[in-house]
User: Fold this.
Amino acid sequence: MNMSSSPFIRFGTAWYPDHWPEEEWARDLDLIRASGIDCIRFGEFSWSWFEPRPGEFRWDAYERFVELAQQRSLSLILCTPTATPPPWFLRKFPDSRLVDADGIPCRAHRHFICWDHPGARAEAERTVRALVRHFRGHPAIAGWQVDNEPNYSESMTIYDFNPHALRSYRNWLRHRYQGDLAALNRAWYANFWSQAVTDWEEIGELAPQRSNPNAWLDFARYRDWAVADMVQAQAKWIREEWPQTHVGTNIPETGIKFSLTIAQDYWAQARGMDWIGTDLYFASGDRAADRRGMRFCSDLMRSVSDDSGAEFYISETQGGPHQRTWPQAFAGEIWGADYLRQSVETYAEHGARQIWFFLFRPTPAGAEMGMNGLCDADGGASERTREVLRMSGPAEQGRFVKRFNLRERRPLALMHYPRDTVRFNGYWISNLDNLQKSMLGWHQMLCEAGWRIRFIDDDGLAAGHAEGASLLALPQSQLLDDAQIGAINDLADAGLPILLGPHCALLDRYGHLRQKTPGGVLAARAGIRPGLWRDQKADAERLFGISVAVDGRRDFNGAAAGTVLLRFRKSKVPAVVRSGGLTWCAFDPGLAYDKAASAARKKLVRLLLPKTTNTKV
Assistant:
């Protein structure tokens, strides 16, 4: 299973024996093998199949499938089933559903359980341990996947206000603030609107996202922690039962807004894993935009994997277009083998060494009927299965390796992924749309200017992890604590060029506006003291009204000296200021780059970025 010693790509797929008549299993597995695929992931939605009643385990069908796979030299990734507990689970634990701020239980049937419920969590542990014990040491089992896309339900509703979750949240806060309620009230600026608490049990009476942005920040931090805690717990259960096995999980990169809603701190979930996969679906009909998204997500999740010391996989990518006759909003564009190849090329170029297609054969019923099949609906070979076979050959594999090696020779730019900023902006949920567009735009600008990108999280920034980097970009680092600011200053002192977005270091660790230097202490170092900001979208549009004016005017607005590199044409207000290796922008370069024509893009790159030798891929 370990791919660290091999430069070549292995192909895998998802295929579910419980979805098909047993007499079709051998035929489907034969086609999987004949298509150049040697790995199957299964079992994440099979709890009711092998445990139809509490404690009543039926392993016979599982065992027959595992034996058929082993006969064909197919490796298996077996998944824990906690994404979809069976109906009997709710009869046993009727108060275990996730709950929203209005007390309404989650009625979905994926990721609907509050794992802070002690009985529910114990039941999950019992089942996971039984599953691992039963297959422990089986030679066909190459590794384990924890859950499936671990999260707080797949909806735009904020969970979890279940009483068990709120109890866990209060304990988390006690630990964070070392039992000091006065410190919590200061952090939450709780005298505003008379929200100061005098007892830990009072916490949770108000829905944080409706009443207090600083309390919401902590609640969002807790939710991320809680999901990751269940992931880490399951990895621990698996390893205690089978110490030498290979454990990972699949994390979809869903974009900033949705990742906050469903509580996905990628770095926290990945910690300690042997492999990290990401689930990516791009079929919008805009091929260029889809590939930009693939590049961004692959770089992001590969960075997460690298920081955790884990192997990086694409654990799900669309095997084919939906094979049904009515429109489908989710990745619904029709496409063929050429797009499959382009997707694989993009993933390989950005570091994936296993690519698993979801799924091999489209299911005939259920919520995902007709979706995503690599083969035809009747189980026959398709243009896409034949393309996978071609891509598994040595000539094609060599081309993938060459593209990856070319990319690795590019200079390295670090790009901060500011999770705390994302959490805080979730109080004003509409703010997250601009954050997403901004991050994508910055990434595109750096890629097209000849850089390779590694993302660093808040902890990595605080630690000053910049080994091998030639640039540090801080696109949306609005909320920075003193340790992060200190690390940025140290890197600047060491000569690393740093590019600051317009709102960098505006807020402290609690989400309070910094008072000493409006606009952020880093902006002051760059030589400016900006006033109020306009809407970011308007800032991007103002790009078309600015001109380069390297006139050397200094001492803008009474702040420390800095060189004005660019001014807004009409107002003459500085738009880009540089001082001592720090470059500050009054507009958002990511949003601007996304909207700009080719000539304006080139002007931005020349102005903002150090020169590179662009290694074409």
Remarks:
- DSSP finds 23 helices and 16 strands in the chain.
